[in-house]
Write a structure and sequence with these properties.
alpha/beta, 2 domains, elongated, Spore Coat Polysaccharide Biosynthesis Protein SpsA, Chain A, transmembrane helix
């Protein structure tokens, strides 16, 4: 594909987290090798009990073992260990087509963004599991309400990142909720992102999904709550303060009305409880104000880590010319340095003779 020839000037790493994907990983690795011949392909094996590592090596991938169980642990290891200009992350189960990788990379470069997400157009037919389809719709709507409208498929595992994104991403998740954390990170940092609609394949025979509809759905939901607390603490604690304040007013009204009509308060425990709830509501509000400043400081730190990385966005053809200039430079530079050294030496000899 000649239109993607400029990719050869970039250091691209394909990173594939895998757990028991022996039936499919070989074809996936070979597919990425054909789609992006200049890319380096890494398979991070997460305690597979089958021949995933062997099949990956046979296909030409570099295999790395990650003993901590969970996709989040694998992604953290991949992002910390691999050095590249661009990173392509996909699953090893064959549901994402390697042939779409050049399109994702081209989108990242042409639109000058830090992350491109492959939106799964056929995710509702994921092995016929209606629970997955419902969960995807619910979580995407919840995300848009809580964090913004940057994404329409926050759970997609097919993504392309710049080095800036990877090296500024904290990666605190341990399981399948890692994609949610990636999306929140991009929204919180206000990073430029893009989406590309892609076909989502079905698992071949002999391959089974590692995703549990209920267990991983609950973990993703808790990740939403955690990310809201970490990134929007004022909003999070304001909601709690509002609920406590409403409860306080509810329990406070009867004693107040009784006092206004009779001049006495017979429901002393109710009054004390209402005042306690009011104090807790005030405490929650103050906590939100303090943590909001802390969250702003964390964003500034991540922003500095982001800016400390070189930008490689939108440099397909410019990057090719820059590399050409760099390779043409050394010979002339050495000759100029030798001539300069000879002139300096000549002046020194002349000065010593006089």
């Amino acid at each position: 594909m000649p239109e993607y020839a400029p990719f050869e000037t970039l250091d691209i790493a394909v990173i594939l987290p895998c757990y028991n994907e022996a039936p499919t990983i070989g074809d996936v690795v070979r597919g990425f090798g054909d789609a992006l011949p200049s890319a380096r392909i890494y398979v991070f094996d997460n305690n597979s009990s089958d021949h995933t590592a062997i099949e990956a090596r046979r296909a030409g991938a570099t295999v790395v073992q990650e003993r901590r169980q969970g996709k989040g642990h694998v992604v953290r290891r991949m992002f910390s260990d691999i050095e590249a200009d661009l990173y392509i992350m996909a699953d090893g189960d064959g549901t994402y087509s390697p042939e779409d990788a050049p399109q994702l990379v081209a989108t990242l470069l042409s639109e000058r963004v830090d992350m491109v997400v492959g939106v799964r157009s056929g995710v509702r037919e994921d092995a016929g599991r209606s629970g997955h389809a419902f969960g995807n719709r619910a979580f995407n709507r919840l995300y848009r309400y809580m964090f913004g409208t940057d994404f329409s498929d926050i759970l997609s595992g097919y993504r392309v990142f710049t080095r800036r994104f990877v090296k500024s991403f904290p990666a605190i998740s341990s399981g399948f909720e890692i994609e949610t954390e990636m999306s929140v990170h991009a929204s919180q940092m206000k990073l430029p992102v893009a989406e590309v609609a892609l076909d989502y394949g079905r698992r071949p025979a002999g391959s089974s999904s590692k995703l549990s509809t209920v267990r991983d759905g609950v973990r993703i939901l808790f990740m939403f709550v955690r990310m809201m607390k970490e990134t929007q603490p004022l909003r999070f604690f304001s909601l709690i303060a509002g609920l406590l304040f409403a409860a306080s007013v509810f329990f406070m009204i009867p004693p107040v009305l009784e006092y206004l009509t009779t001049g006495i308060v017979s429901r002393v425990p109710t009054w004390i409880g209402a005042v306690g709830l009011l104090l807790l509501a005030t405490l929650m509000m103050v906590t939100g104000l303090i943590l909001d400043s802390v969250a702003a400081g964390r964003v500034e730190q991540m922003r500095m880590a982001y800016l400390n990385q070189p930008a490689r966005r939108g440099e397909m053809r410019a990057g090719s010319r820059e590399r050409t200039r760099r390779t043409d430079r050394p010979a002339a530079t050495r000759k100029d340095a030798e001539d300069k050294a000879s002139r300096v030496k000549g002046r020194r000899v002349k000065a010593g003779g006089s």
